[in-house]
Amino acid sequence: MNNGIGVGAKQGADSNQQSPFLSKIGEILENALDELKAARDLSGLENRFKFFCGKKGKLTEILHLIYSLSPEEKKNIGSKANEVKKQIKVFYQNKKNELLEAGKIGLPKKHKLDLTVPGAYIEKFHKHPITAVLEEAVDFFSSMGFEIAEGPEIETTYYNFDALNIPSNHPARDVWDTFYLLNGLVPRTHTSSVQVRTMEKKSPPFRVIAPGRCYRYEAVDATHLFMFNQMEGLFVDKNVRLTDLKGILEETVKYLLGAKKTRFRPAFYPFVEPGLDLDIECVFCGGRGCGICKNTGWIEVIPCGMVHPNVFKYAKIDPNEYRGFAFGMGFDRIVMLKYNINDLRFLYQGNLDVLSQF
Ligand code: PHE
Q1: Measured from the CB, is residue 330 less than 6 Å from ligand 1?
Q2: Is pLDDT above 70 for 355?
Q3: CATH of domain 129-355
Q4: Going by DSSP bridges, is the β-strand pair 186-187/154-155 parallel, antiparallel, or unpaired?
Q5: DSSP string, 30-57
Q6: CA separation for the pair 8, 207 (Å, rounded)
Q7: What average pLDDT does this structure show over 142-146?
Q8: 303 CB less than 6 Å from ligand 1?
């Protein structure tokens, strides 16, 4: 065995020549400092410290190997070993303090992966019922060739009233009473304001729907809000008839609400002639009469009618050449009926106890 520190190896008497034991001790010091420095946690640090300085550690090992050397050499090597042990110990102590400190403030510790820990519960979310039903309705109308049209929520009185055949002195303006802004604009009171805007942009024939928010001067209660959603529909072509309106709207309430029985009643809206309201049999009492349908057995869902010739004139479309029908669904009402919600305010409070039920 010729590793230079073999048991009983006689060391040369030449004191200038570095003893292999001394150089081995130097090597231990170097390795020990490197390894202690690299320790990432307390148990790793402890383990490395014992490896070099413990009872059966590398330094003690050396002391066991030098029994055959001269007393002077033994003393020399022994004291060098003790000195190195002290150095390593100081380094170990400092590193230990550093790791304890890091542990306190949560700095890098060895990452432990525990595969038995149960997974974190992730709440499932879904679309708001208004958005969900709106998307359903948009799909339904798209399948019949309707495109989406848009208009501003803050509207001129021209598009909100005048162009819809409601002049400024007409009592019908009271029906759509709203907040007037100081600059004369209005938060639109209905999506019908998109009608003339669309007719100005598109040349017939066309079919559009215009979903969006509307505003009115209302005291808030279970069935009224100052802000709500509507969906306008407008179909303009050469030969559009009342029967087209009836067919499409009956299909709509069947599709969206599963309505079985419907009826049309005459109604007045200045921008249609004739004007109608589409009712469905009350979904709450099955037509027998209840508080919600005010004992009539019917619920009004879609106001509608044939586009008034004056509206076409405002839009510079010739009423002798084209005809059209329009409707304006109270969209929140459709959602309430679909999900059996009896208070409109629930749809806008953002209350998760309510919304998570859909
Ligand atoms: N805009 C009307 C309203 O808000 C509804 C409507 C739209 C009626 C289109 C007829 C045609 O009350």
Answers
A1: no
A2: yes
A3: 3.30.930.10
A4: antiparallel
A5: HHHHHHHHH--SHHHHHHHHHHHHSTTS
A6: 105
A7: 97
A8: yes
